Each structure stands twice: as structure tokens, then as C-alpha cells.
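Re: the pair you flagged

First of the two:
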Amino acid sequence: MTSYSISAALRSSVTGPARDLIRQFFATGLTKVLKNRENVLLWSYSQFELSPFLIYQGYVQGKYPLPSTRHKNQVNWYDPEVRGIIPVDHYKIRNDLLRRLKKEKRSSDEERIQIKVNANFRDTILSCTKPRGVKNNTWISNEYVEAGIVLHDMGIAHSVEAYQNGILVGGLVGLSINGFFATLSLFHTVDNASKIAFCYLLQKLKDDGFKLHHCGDVDSWFTQYGMIPIAREPYRKELMLAVTQPVRFTSSVPALVF
């Protein structure tokens, strides 16, 4: 007898009241162990295989995944009390980065950073998987990459890419659902290349009419762009409004005005 038929037999042998009792037992136990029902829901998400639909569904509900760097094939889902967003109409660019952007205009063709949108999503997200930092690790798993590529093919995931002399040297990937955009990851092999790409993204979100830009943790380096903290309930309201707005992430490269 296969494991499926055994499982089916067990299910058929348990009466309705017994099933309800078992569910209640485990629900109560998980709630006590994980502190509250919100954490139980996040834990239940982590038990599913990471898929394009699950990622899409999670973001619509205000959750976001981070594959574990310690446990292979494990995905942790988060719905924090406070997270960070960058107001689409009121982002900031630091003075040192503004100077770099102005310098770019005077650079030679070989040195100048050229920005493209959705020209090479696959290589951009693969570049985001390369180990970095003192711990020499990355949180982006193969499953996450595969799901991201499918979402890109569907017009949901996007990339803003930085090239120098025809070579991909930086960029970012993100997710758009109507008027909502979430920045997922960035990479660079040339100093400031990802930050320049991010500046173009910020202008692009404003030009395209996006309503909400999610960035994750409130203590990340995104604070230099004017990221502000927002509590869970206000964020959910902003999210509901954003995902119901008919906004499209276009393929145009915005013009930065200094």
C-alpha cells in the first residue's frame, strides 16, 4: 500500500468530530509554542514549497519570504509589527550619490553606467544569489530564483539593471502587483552600481504612479533613501489600496532630474 493510500485510509477512518478535536489540539499547541495565531499562520506558510503563486499570495496578504541561510530548503515568512517603506513621492538621494550621478553624465562611454529595465532579469536575479558580506552567504535559494523567473515571464517580477561598457555590473529585482512594488534584492560588482539602479527605480515608481513601495526591515540601508517605519495595520490598509489600483510597471527608463 502506498503512503498516499495509507494516508487516505487514515483520513477516512477518522470521524468528523474526531478530526475537529485533533485540529483543535494541534492548533492550541502551536499557538502556545509560537506565541500567537499570526505566528501559526506564518509557520504554516513555511511548510509549503516556495512557488510563484505562494510568493504572490504572500505579498498580497502583507507577508514576505526569506529563505533560511542555515537550513536548506526552509523558507521563513515574516509579517512584522513594523516594517519599512519608502514613500513613492518623497524619496531622498544622499548628496554623495547625487554627486556620483552628476559625474556619470560627464563620464566617457566606457565608464558611464547605463540603465536598462527588464532587459536581462535572469542574469540579474542570478547575480543577486552570489555570496556577499563577511559571512559570505546569500538568502536567495534556487527555488526562489526559479519562482522569480516564472513571475517575470508573467509580467509580475521586474529588474532594473546597470551596465558598464556592455557588462552587467549591478541592479535589482522586485515584484509589482498593480500599485504595489516590493524591492527584493540588489547586487553590484562596481561601486554604487546598484544604488544608481535603485535611484532610477525610485523615479520610475513615481513616474508610473505606484502607491506603495515595500523594502523590508526598518534598520536596513534603505534609510538613506527616506525609508520610514510603518506599523502592521496601517501597512495593510495601504497595501489593500495599492493592489487595487490599476498601475503598470512599464519598460521605460526614467530621466533623473538633479
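Second of the two:
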Amino acid sequence: MPKFDEPESIGNEVVMGEVVAADAVPVQGRAEMVVVLAQQGMGRNEISRRTGISTASVSRIAEANGISFDGSRVEVALKARIAELKQAQAGIALGLHEDIAVARMLLRTARTHRDYAFAAKAIGDLTQAAQRMTPEITSQEEAEEVKEALIDLRFQAGLMRDGFEAKYGVPMDSAEGIEIFNKMRQEAKQDD
């Protein structure tokens, strides 16, 4: 278990053993948050954004705990953040489509020319906004997502194979391993 060291110079939060930070998060807790998030592959800026700790403090905490922010881990975190943003963007687009449905209902029930014109304008504006907010997925992005999924599947299958071989002491692709695996599948089908 890491020791979560945080230099005492960070923000002077500890005075004679008491926490005086405005957010009342103990220094040890701040260091632990930074270490855990860094181990998950998040970059310095993302950790700072999520925790409210300055990037300089994040750097010092990480350095005190022997953690460095290398490019590959930051790239993974950046891809995850971009995926989060695309998901949020798609959610907004979906909400706009719901608003279009409401505006269409207002258009159908309009009693005056003015109400009709406002509803028609709203439909046009909302439609344009929905089109702009709908994330575009290129063939290259789809191929990258499939590639990532296949790599993850291969990794998980390897872990499963290793666990099987460690548990039963035989190679999974041996005749005995296949027999054990088939018995496990049959038992699973019976349980369902």
C-alpha cells in the first residue's frame, strides 16, 4: 500500500496537526485522491479539474509518491475524456430532439399566426442545433473502437485462460482442459 506522502508546503493546510483548508479535506485524503486518480491513468490537469487541487499541488503530491505523468497514460485519459464529452454531446442532441417534438406539438396546436410562426422558428432553430450537436463518428473512429474492444477481449480471454490453468493445472486448450471447460458450460446451462 502506498504511503501517500504530501509535501507540507502545499497550501499550508496543516497547522499543529489540524486541517485548516477551506474545503476541509485532510492533506492525507488529498494525497490519496491524487495517487488513486493518477494510478487510474488520469493526467495532471484532469486530476486538478476533478478534485479542485491546483495542478502544481497535484504535481508535487505525485512526485512525493513516486508517480510521474507519462504521455501514454495521459493519452488514455484524454481519449476517455473525449469519449465522455461525445457522450454528453449526444445526450444534449437527444434532448434537443425531444424539444423539437414539443415544438411540433405547439405548431400543430397554434391558434394564431404569431404562435405558428414562433413554433416554426423554434423547430428550425432546434433542428439546426440538434444537427450540430449530434456527434459524428467516422469510419476511422469506429475501427479504432472495434480495435480497442478486440484488444480488451484478447486481454480478458488471456486472464481467463491463465486463471483456468492455475486452478485446474492443465493447459486450457489440452484435451483434458477442453473436457473440464465443456463440463463447466453444461453445468452453467443447467443452472440457468
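Residues 5-25 have pLDDT under 50 and may be disordered.

-B.
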